[in-house]
Amino acid sequence: LNLRSEIWWDVARGLSKDQAWDLTGVGESTLAELAAPRWREDKTGRIVIESKDDIRKRIGRSTDNADALLLAFYQSPQPNLRWLS
Q: How far apart are CA 20 and CA 50, in angstroms?
């Protein structure tokens, strides 16, 4: 649906599911932030991660630390530059 949902779904869920990251040095509050967002599917089956505003209202704090952690692991897709050759 959007880049934020993609990052949370692919990075947080993907790395956790594959046991591909070591979170032993991550603080408890950041781990709680990683577990905070709810998700759902939209009408077309796309994954939608709960907005930061909704999370903030529900748990009383932002997920800034978790967002920063996920961005450190996010790998942007490489653009197709064949047209340049």
A: 24
33 contacts: CB under 8 Å, gap ≥ 6: 61, 62, 63, 64, 65, 66
CA atoms within 13 A on the CB side of 73: 20
Residue 1 above 70 pLDDT? no
Within 13 A of 54's CA, how many CA atoms are on the CB side?
8
For the segment 29-61, what is each residue's pLDDT rounded down to a tens digit? Answer: 999 999 999 999 999 999 999 999 999 999 999
pTM score, two decimals? 0.80
